[in-house]
Amino acid sequence: MDITNLTIKSINDGYKKGEFSVSEIIKLYLERISKLDSSIQSFITLTSVEALENAGKKDMNISIESEKNPLYGIPIAYKDLFLTKGIKTTASSNILNDYIPQYDATVVKRFKDSGTVMLGKLNCDAWAHGSSGENSDFFVTKNPYNTSYVPGGSSSGSSASVAASFTPLATGTDTGGSIRQPASLTNTVGLKPTYGLVSRYGIISMASSLDTVGHFTKTVYDSALALNTTAGIDKYDSTLTDRGKLDYTKKIGKEIKGMKLGIPKEYITESIDPQVKSAFENAKRVFQKLGAEIIEVSLPNTEHAVAVYYIIQPSEVSSNLARYDGIRYGNLRSYFGEEAKRRIILGTFTLSSGYYDAYYKKAMQVRTLIINDFNCVFDKVDVLIAPVSPTPAWKIGEKVNDPLKMYLSDILTIPANLAGIPSLAVPAGFSKERLPIGIQIMGQQFSEEILFQIGHAFEDETKFYKEIPIL
Amino acid sequence: MKIDVKKVASLANLSLTESDNKKLAPQLEEIVSYIQKLNKIDSANIEPTSQVTGLTNVLRDDSQLRPSLSQEEALSGTKNQHNGAFQVEGILEEK
């Protein structure tokens, strides 16, 4: 059986009809990983033995459970920032290269309770610091569409593993674009939820006023299904907002005729690659064909977003990474890699006595201006659409010695994190070199249902997700 | 803007090598000169945002979180323990 075109939904349908067992599905994915991941290097840890054992148990109840629970028996892999009880969790860092957590992250527990089967843990930039995956302290994950190119970051193993059909579902974290950007570079769907919708308990912190927890899937419908499991309050995370229990698939399939889609003119600049521009132009035409109205809007403070982000984020990073002292777990601070050191020093500097007002406080004030911009435009439009990454994937090694250049590649994703709004990245085509290009749909806080509705309408019309990489 | 990388590193309890210093100092200066562009913005009367969804002072009863980790579990990750406690370097020196 060819598993490259499977989705969460199609696996669940197969279980319901008794077409295959959980053990068969898990075996097929594990075989594909063992055959092909040596060229992609998306996994840090494989939990094959546990997965097969788990699958065997799931098979005893699959006919009943698959009717009630769409994630029952579905393979999943976690970015290695998600604590998994008894399974090594490294943050792709040498500091935590032998760390075994004593408990599960809330999201991991919820996925377990809903019946998923863990395949393993995925590579990323160490501590989620990066836009290419190259900052992993262990090895560099490759883009499945061309292994000389980066798969995006920081959730590099997550994007690559879903694109390579090693798993239909992988988790990620998005602090400045770490889900949407790798999704757009690998032809996958990436959700960055609203700040405070999904619990962060048990997920290694990066920058606490920006961190969000989402996932990668092949389709928009699958993304909504996964959010049905992860969203919701948690007594272990006091930053969550109680929205009650929602079915995020509810609006999927409804037409988008008459909806107002804004395009922030500050996002379409000279620095956007012509091929990304043309994919975005094409996306605009698709939305118009579907009956949506395209309106140009302005977010005048966009130009300040990267500077604001590279003050707030390293400041919070330096504070969060202060706990790694090698006493209770992990190795000594001398094990930190170069990018972590760079951010710790930058953040310690911007928070230090005499500089706090000039940097951190200033950045938090300009953050308010950026939020106000979004609030103004959401009075006029339902959602915003924009490219995700200014360029398609770049060659491995191209930006590693120029941190500022690497930071600037986040320009189109950072504003959503600063404002805490949700954004859904969906595939939007390919470059001449057959490298994927994505677009993002941003909405008001807690508007995920509408993002899925619009994202699905676009996907249904274009079906780019069916273009799988040749491995 | 000159950054005293050694001093800042010591505040962050990081020990850097000479080659770290040489590489990081110009990179950090370039980044700081980039983020300084915010100085041009007049933000005198603007409230800073630190929490984007408007939550303030979220409280809960500690008893909701029990049971916590056992002593054995809490110690399971450490490389240095003594009589069931974490062992740390001495921080007080005799004069």
Could you explain the architecture of this structure?
With 471 residues, chain A is α/β, with parallel strands linked by helices. Helices cover 37% and strands 13% of the residues of chain A. Chain A has helices spanning 8-17, 22-40, 48-59, 62-68, 106-113, 156-163, 180-185, 220-230, 274-289, 305-320, 338-351, 357-377, 403-408, 414-419, 448-462; strands spanning 43-46, 75-79, 117-122, 169-174, 189-192, 212-217, 260-264, 293-297, 383-387, 423-430, 436-442. Chain A has an 8-stranded mixed beta sheet with strand order 4-6-5-10-11-9-7-8, sandwiched between helices. A 3-stranded mixed beta sheet of chain A has the order 1-3-2, with helices on both faces. Chain A is globular and about 60 Å long. The relative contact order of chain A is 0.14. Chain B is mainly alpha-helical and 95 residues long. The longest helix of chain B has 18 residues, at 18-35. Chain B has a two-stranded antiparallel sheet. Chain B is flat, with a radius of gyration of 23 Å.
Strands of chain B, total number: 2
> What is the beta-strand fraction of chain A?
5-15%
Q: Largest sheet of chain A, described in full?
A: 8 strands, mixed
Q: What order do the SSEs of chain B take from the amino end to the carboxyl end, as H and E?
A: HHHEE
What's the pLDDT, averaged over the residues of chain B? 91
Regarding quaternary structure, what we see is heterodimer
Specify the helix fraction band of chain A. Answer: 25-40%
The value of Rg of chain A in angstroms is 21 Å
Helix count, DSSP H or I runs of 4 or more residues of chain A: 15
